[in-house]
Specification:
Blueprint lengths: L18 E3 L9 E5 L1 H6 L9 H7 L12 E3 L2 E4 L2 E4 L5 E8 L5 E7 L14 E2 H16 L6 E13 L3 E11 L5 H9 L3 H15 L9 H23 L1 E2 L21 E2 L23 H20 L3 H12 L2 H16 L9 H15 L3 H8 L13 H14 L6 H11 L7 H12 L4 H10 L29
Antiparallel strand pairs: 1-3, 2-9, 4-5, 6-7, 7-10, 8-10, 9-10, 11-12
Helix pairs in contact: 3-14, 3-15, 4-7, 6-7, 6-8, 6-9, 7-8, 10-12, 14-15
The protein binds adenosine monophosphate (AMP) and magnesium ion.
The site of magnesium ion has 3 residues, from loops.
Length: 482
């Protein structure tokens, strides 16, 4: 009975500075809730011959696979702008699994008990938030956005104390690595250049081997990360995703979305949308995400100053200029993304006005972000009087006029829109419904939303309610530290 694990745990071989060697803390009564068989098969893993009892032990951390070597990783981070020493306080990396095609993935348990980095936390996670991460991270994947994935969730059989008593759970997270901006900050704060070089080389070896022989690896890495993160945040903006807690410890060097805490998707278009209950000032609001991405990238560049140039003022100047390239790159990628959403080919001087005028109209009329693009594609699930508005009709004429410059490629234009505008996003009320039911052991709504979100760009039947924003009209709130 081989599952197919192939561990080669390179990070655990780094010095003690980078991690704590620790095993997951065993749980009393493990019980598998969900296993992502499609992802398992992408990883060349086969769990089909393992019985539920054993699967529960595996995915709760009670039974570690042969070849694993678990650690908690050290990192730091700017949380809401304040620098703090952090680390995996409730997670352990059990190892790096290599697939047949030689791709390497971190396998991490989240909610696996206390570590040296737990500070005042209990090291545990609750069922609702772990299933929430499962739903949203898998949706991000099918929405074609770089992300960590979710392989399984198992209940621990233990209660955990939050505002109320909740069921404990462990999520198995899969990532191309868990190296964060915060990992560099942790090492840089120790001011030992040899350690910083080790981390730089390790990261390049793992994610950016194309620059391993370059003359200025540190600078090249900053440039590559600017591109990856720019691409990532543009994709978030495309689908109305609000991460909610873009602290530097929650920004990966791989360019994958990580840490699905208080994140949620925007319904009606409002650039200032914030869901997280603790984000009082709107630091991580929808419209601030690009600004914060740049801010985080600047923190990353600061870490690498000693490796950019021996002459510190010169290194700072180079790093500053490099980081300042972000705005133009973002603007260009964002414009192209919006053109794609509108099915527009080529460039036109007036594109920016056309795009901004639509967004302004959506904001004023509180139009649903996702469904407005569906309306333009004649795929809006329900007839909405909103779109009979005179201003919208005028705007649409301008859009049609601009589209006609696409050289008669209306089929291609529709294809472009279909590839960029999802029909389905994880609607907040549907997530809540699935989580509430799962807490009562009813997994039907969970399985249903997961099934629909497997194909977010496709028309599907039996999806009533999954395309509309919540009808209650109550402001949706999400919570951190879950
Ligand atoms: P997050 O908000 O999930 O990005 O976590 C920020 C930091 O708090 C990380 O160092 C986590 O490991 C730590 N943390 C979050 N929840 C807990 C918990 N229940 N117990 C221990 N550490 C935690
Ligand atoms: Mg985090």
């Amino acid at each position: 009975m081989t599952i197919g694990w192939h561990f080669n745990n390179t990070y655990s071989k780094l010095s003690e500075t980078f991690k704590e060697n620790i095993k997951p803390i065993p749980v009393t009564n493990p019980d598998l809730v969900i296993l992502n068989e499609a992802l398992a098969s992408e990883l060349d893993l086969d769990f089909s011959k393992i019985d539920k009892d054993e699967l529960s032990k595996i995915f709760s951390g009670n039974l570690l696979p042969a070849g694993s070597n678990s650690i908690a990783q050290a990192y730091a981070g700017h949380q809401f702008g304040h620098f703090t020493m952090l680390g995996d306080g409730r997670a352990v990396l059990i190892g790096e699994h290599t697939t047949k095609s030689k791709k390497k993935f971190d396998i991490q348990f989240k909610g696996s008990g206390k570590t040296a980095f737990s500070r005042n936390g209990d090291g545990r996670a609750a069922l609702g938030p772990m299933l929430r991460e499962y739903i949203i991270s898998e949706a991000m994947h099918t929405l074609k956005i770089p992300t960590t994935r979710s392989l399984a969730v198992a209940k621990t059989g233990e209660d955990i104390q939050r505002e109320k008593v909740l069921q404990g759970a462990v999520l198995t997270r899969v990532a191309s690595s868990h190296i964060r901006v915060g990992t560099f900050q942790y090492i840089a704060a120790r001011q030992k250049e040899d350690e910083l070089k080790i981390l730089l080389d390790y990261t390049i070896g793992r994610h950016y081997p194309e620059i391993k022989n370059s003359n200025n690896k540190a600078l090249d890495l900053i440039n590559l990360l600017i591109d990856r993160q720019c691409n990532l945040v543009v994709n978030w903006m495309r689908v109305g995703f609000i991460h909610g807690v873009m602290n530097t410890d929650n920004m990966t060097i791989s360019g994958e979305t990580i840490d699905y805490g208080p994140c949620a998707f925007m319904d009606n278009y409002d650039p200032k949308t914030v869901f997280s209950s603790i984000d009082q000032t709107g630091r991580y609001a929808y419209c601030n995400q690009p600004v914060i991405t740049k801010w985080n990238l600047a923190r990353f560049a600061e870490c690498l100053i000693p490796l950019i140039d021996k002459d510190q003022p010169k290194a700072i100047k180079i790093a500053t200029e490099t980081i300042n390239s972000f705005e133009n790159k973002y603007e260009e990628k964002w414009m192209n993304m919006m053109r794609d959403k509108l099915g527009l080919f080529g460039l036109d001087d007036k594109d920016k006005f056309l795009i901004l005028d639509l967004l302004t109209w959506m904001h004023e009329k509180k139009a649903d972000y996702t469904n407005t693009f569906l309306h333009l594609m004649k795929l809006n699930p329900k007839k909405d009087n909103l779109y009979s508005d005179k201003d919208f009709i005028n705007w649409k004429e301008r859009w049609e006029d601009r589209s006609s410059k696409n050289n008669g490629t209306s089929k291609k234009s529709m294809e472009l829109m279909r590839n960029n505008n999802p029909l389905f996003i994880p609607r907040n009320h549907k997530i809540e419904e699935a989580l509430e039911a799962a807490e009562q052991n009813d997994l039907k709504p969970l399985n249903k939303i997961l099934e629909i979100l497997k194909r977010p760009y496709d028309e599907q039947i039996g999806t009533e309610g999954y395309q509309s924003p919540s009808v209650s009209g109550e402001k949706y709130q999400t919570f951190c530290g879950t």
